[in-house]
Amino acid sequence: MKRIAIFASGSGSNAQKIIEYFAEAENTEVSLVLSNNENAFVLERASSLNIPAYVFDRQLFYETEQVHDILRDIGIDFIVLAGFMWLVPQNILSHWAGRIINIHPALLPKFGGKGMYGDKVHKAVIDAGEKETGITIHYVNEKYDEGEIIFQEAFKILPKDTPESIAEKIHVLEHKHFPAVIGQLVDKLDQE
Ligand code: GAR
User: Catalytic amino acids?
Assistant: First the structure.
């Protein structure tokens, strides 16, 4: 059995799609949802889908081994950031090297970096007069949104688009592709 952990800070619609996708899988499961936000809606989603959840604060995450140890003790093979807004500390990056991915709601390397999340990204894309936007799935390293790109899909921006309408289209694309890309990467772990 391959075990996935999902880190999320907010609503968790991607986390839910990923959990549902792997609920059907024979050899992969989402074993844990982790959040830095005790009020995040993702925790309610995890609870209704019967997935254990764990909440941590900044001090615990960056100054102790606790999150690392929990992931190791459960036997987590693969880590997914789905709307998670903090950098991952070095102890976790090292242990799961090449096995941590993130989704970003724009076409990296443009419109990434610290503070670029959610509607701020879509507003920046519109303000820059971009003709298209899309989603990026990439490996995670010690910098915001700079790891190697795994997958992108773009769509045209229409004159009537707003940050809200773009966010909706982005979510549709994310929900369609993120679980399947994770599945492909987890299947490849067997061949390593
Ligand atoms: C997603 O659109 C994801 O791409 C974005 O946060 C949203 C979370 O939605 N991530 C970032 O902006 C990271 N910089 P969700 O909570 O409904 O899955």
Answer: 104
Q: Which domains does the chain have, with CATH numbers?
A: 2-189 (3.40.50.170)
Q: Residue 113 Cα, ligand 1 centroid: separation in angstroms? A: 13
The 10s digit of each residue's pLDDT in 119-164 is 999 999 999 999 999 999 999 999 999 999 999 999 999 999 999 9
**pLDDT the model gives residue 108:** 98
3-state secondary structure the chain: CEEEEEECCCCCHHHHHHHHHHHCCCCEEEEEEEECCCCCHHHHHHHHCCCCEEECCHHHHHHCCHHHHHHHHHCCCEEEECCCCCCCCHHHHHHCCCCEEEEECCCCCCCCCCCCCHHHHHHHHHHCCCCEEEEEEEECCCCCCCCCEEEEEEEECCCCCCHHHHHHHHHHHHHHHHHHHHHHHHHHHCCC
The rounded radius of gyration (Å) of the Cα atoms in the chain is 16
Please work out whether the CB of residue 136 comes within 6 Å of at least one atom of ligand 1: no
Residue 15 has pLDDT above 80, yes or no: yes
